[in-house]
Amino acid sequence: MATDSNKFQAIISHCKEYGFIFQSSEIYDGLSAVYDYGQNGSELKKNIRDYWWKSMTQMHENIVGIDAAIFMHPTTWKASGHVDNFSDPMIDNKDSQKRYRVDHLIEAHVETLPKEEGDKLLAKMDQLLAKEDFGGLKQLIEDSKIKCTVSGTSNWTDVRQFNLMFSTQLGSVSEEASEIYLRPETAQGIFVNFLNVQKTGRLRIPFGIAQVGKAFRNEIVARQFIFRMREFEQMEMQFFIRPGTQKEWYEYWKAERMKWHLSLGIPAERYRFHDHVKLAHYADAACDIEYDFPIGFKEVEGIHSRTDFDLRNHQEYSKKKMQYFDNDLDESGKPYGNYIPYVIETSIGLDRTVMMVLSQAFEEEDLSTEGKPDSRVILKFPPRIAPVKLAILPLVKKDGLPEIARELMNECKTAFRCFYEEKDAIGKRYRRQDAIGTPFCVTIDHQTKEDGTVTIRYRDSMKQERISLKAVKELVDKAIL
């Protein structure tokens, strides 16, 4: 389990320095595990969100999107199982009063061990978690001599469950208010709207409903930058299918989602599938797509075969039928008739995807030549998701060059995000654009006035060439398709 903590810290620092991600409420010393996206980070996040949305809803004729509210009737979470089952095993250190999620505590210890020894410990942990053997988990922690990072002692409480949902009050007067929950996932907004969408869209099974939105989890041990936060964003799609076909659709969506990840330009060897040892209460099959972060392989996306658990439970609790009439014919020539559909879920963390893309793109390059040290930090984003697609840089602030540059800016900015800058030497401006991941820089110089050509510089290779001023927009357009 190789990790690169130096690279991870360098990425975090880079994100702050170049306007990608800031600690929330930083002027008040911050809020733990809550982050704000800056000008470049919010653009990167939006581009990833849009790319996922297009791949789901525009490229699949049988998938539509919705935007459900964050607040939902509290019975929703009873029906979904979150009130009774949305818990994690926790353990406290008696000396420091610090609380840890058991799997995170053990995983952090594993990172200090040789690979073979660490793998054995993780396998034992997975077995105990699957059996919900809390006594065994505490014994495993004690036998492994795992210590609290604050107190340095192994004086542990018993392991117990902790519910992760945030509760709040709905109502104008606190005495009359009802307790409701901030949603811990976006999926339930899809399930309660299943019939609304199916009937108004005249959709036939198989079909999917996609949604992007905020979710909230009261993580006790939120850590590792934006990988695990208390307020985060999910991109989920629930695919409704005929009972009995879930195995083939589960495999189909595993393959489809991996294709999407590879389309980001990330090599296949940086990914792996991880099958769940302990299945969630709603699933009959589940796996994660994990990416090799600087902090090791971690989950980015989950694919779950949710059976008919959600729709059946919502039917029971709401007393409203959640059935679909299938008039396709079965093998005997009769219509399949009424049934509660089964569901295949794809659920990807948008913030984790941002962190994945940053981890893959971040490079520190040594460009030193004999007697001349030089280096650059570069973010090699795929052009389609880069925050800025084109930087337009007049060589000097006079001689009519800014006017030509502004004309190009006005031509391009309606099609994609551009950046205009006149200040500093051109080399410094190039380096700043490398640091935010801009794939193309165009320099307007005196030759532009003579023959209508510009110098275009390519981020990754630093190659420069002369092209027609009129060809710039088309070149960038093709690169970001």
From TrEMBL:
- Primary residence: cytoplasm
What InterPro entries does the record tag this protein with? aa-tRNA-synt_IIb, aa-tRNA-synth_II, aa-tRNA-synth_II/BPL/LPL, Anticodon-bd, Anticodon-bd_dom_sf, Gly-tRNA_synthase/POLG2, Gly_tRNA_ligase_bac, GlyRS-like_core
The regions listed as transmembrane in this protein's record are none
Residues binding ATP, per UniProt = 217-219, 227-232, 299-300, 349-352
Keywords for the protein's UniProt record, in alphabetical order: Aminoacyl-tRNA synthetase, ATP-binding, Cytoplasm, Ligase, Nucleotide-binding, Protein biosynthesis
Where does it sit, as one GO cellular component term? cytoplasm
User: What top-tier enzyme class does this entry carry?
Assistant: ligase
- Cite the GO molecular-function annotations of the record: ATP binding; bis(5'-nucleosyl)-tetraphosphatase (asymmetrical) activity; glycine-tRNA ligase activity
Q: Which residues bind substrate?
A: 101, 185, 232-236, 345-349
Ranges where the Aminoacyl-transfer RNA synthetases class-II family profile domain occurs: 106-394
Query: Which locations, inside or outside the cell, does it occupy?
Result: Cytoplasm
Family, per the entry? Belongs to the class-II aminoacyl-tRNA synthetase family.
Subunit note: Homodimer.
Q: Which PANTHER family match?
A: DNA POLYMERASE SUBUNIT GAMMA-2, MITOCHONDRIAL (PTHR10745:SF8), GLYCYL-TRNA SYNTHETASE/DNA POLYMERASE SUBUNIT GAMMA-2 (PTHR10745)
Q: What exactly does this protein do?
A: Catalyzes the attachment of glycine to tRNA(Gly).
Q: List the protein's name.
A: Glycine--tRNA ligase
Give the species. Flavihumibacter solisilvae
